[in-house]
Design goal:
Keywords: Membrane, Transmembrane, Transmembrane helix. The protein has 12 helices and no strands. The chain is mainly α and about 300 residues long.
């Protein structure tokens, strides 16, 4: 391909445009996924975290039944999978809404322990009556401690994304100020990207057939900058090594990370392919224009020779 017109300024603008394309795309992903509370709620189901969460609660009460002499079934009677999952999703959403500055209401576990407490208390009382156990201060203290420890564990399990813990950290004051401004940053990035493209078009306005090439290069380079690390992280299982003690939290967090990674790969594969197509298209246009110019030149050269002969 011949040397392009205004090569140096167009190359510089292309580099900046590719950088702002990457920045704009990352900001869009932040708005649609990373900072979207609904995405994390969906991830809890899609990643298999809800199944792991239920198994985690069930396993805990199987172990807790040994020192308390209360059967696992008694503890789990009011804790079905749907109830646990819905509560965990609600806590995740309200916690992240607070972290992202969408609400001023601090997150709390919204779960009614009445049925749970009644099931455990009824069992203890029936057991005590059947075995003539004295209901003294120690007896009631045992009930209170049993319920307190059990409920604390359940509430801790509900924080499947550790979002509530994050909402209580010192960093939340920063995130609540920064996140709401991200839309403005995205708008600014889009304006800068469009301005760069407009300047490129203005500089090359007399050679419009060169623009597909430059647009193709922007898409090619910009998508490659995100595609290469995303593919590396995904297919080497880079985030599989995260050390998280609870299986449910592991599934939820790695599921959220890989969900974003998969979407990055999909989008940038499309942009990469489009960039290649535009570059090839520009080459084809150039070939046809060169042929057309040669034919035009050859035709006029023959006409000049004929005119010289007649004269």
């Amino acid at each position: 391909m011949k040397r392009l017109y205004h090569y140096t300024p167009m190359l510089i603008l292309t580099i900046f445009a590719a950088v702002f394309m990457v920045l704009t795309q990352l900001l869009i992903f932040c708005q649609t996924m990373v900072l979207n509370t609904d995405y994390y709620v969906w991830t809890i189901s899609d990643s298999g975290a809800e199944e792991a969460l239920y198994n985690e609660v069930s396993t805990y009460f199987r172990q807790y039944s040994i020192p308390t002499d209360i059967p696992q079934d008694v503890y789990m009677k009011s804790l079905d999978k749907t109830t646990i999952t819905v509560t965990a999703k609600r806590l995740t959403k309200t916690s992240l809404d607070y972290v992202f500055g969408n609400t001023h209401v601090k997150p709390q576990v919204q779960f009614d322990f009445t049925d749970f407490e009644n099931d455990v208390t009824d069992y203890i009382e029936k057991y005590s009556d059947a075995n003539n156990i004295v209901k003294d201060a120690e007896y009631y203290s045992f009930i209170d401690n049993t319920l307190e420890n059990a409920e604390a564990k359940i509430e801790n399990c509900f924080d499947i994304m550790m979002a509530q813990k994050l909402s209580e950290s010192g960093a939340v004051s920063i995130s609540r100020k920064v996140v709401p401004k991200m839309k403005g940053v995205l708008a600014l990035s889009c304006v800068v990207l469009l301005a760069l493209l407009a300047v490129m078009y203005y500089i090359d306005r007399h050679h419009p057939f060169d623009m597909p090439y430059w647009i193709g290069v922007i898409l090619f380079v910009g998508s490659a900058l995100l595609l290469i690390p995303a593919i590396y992280c995904r297919y080497t299982g880079y985030f599989d090594g995260l050390f998280l003690t609870d299986e449910s939290i592991y599934y939820a967090i790695t599921g959220a990370i890989y969900g974003v990674t998969d979407r990055l790969i999909l989008v940038n594969c499309i942009l990469f392919g489009l960039g290649v197509v535009l570059i090839i298209f520009a080459q084809i246009i150039h070939i046809f224009r060169v042929r057309e110019a040669m034919q035009y030149h050859h035709h006029h050269h023959d006409d000049d020779d004929e005119a010289d002969t007649n004269s």
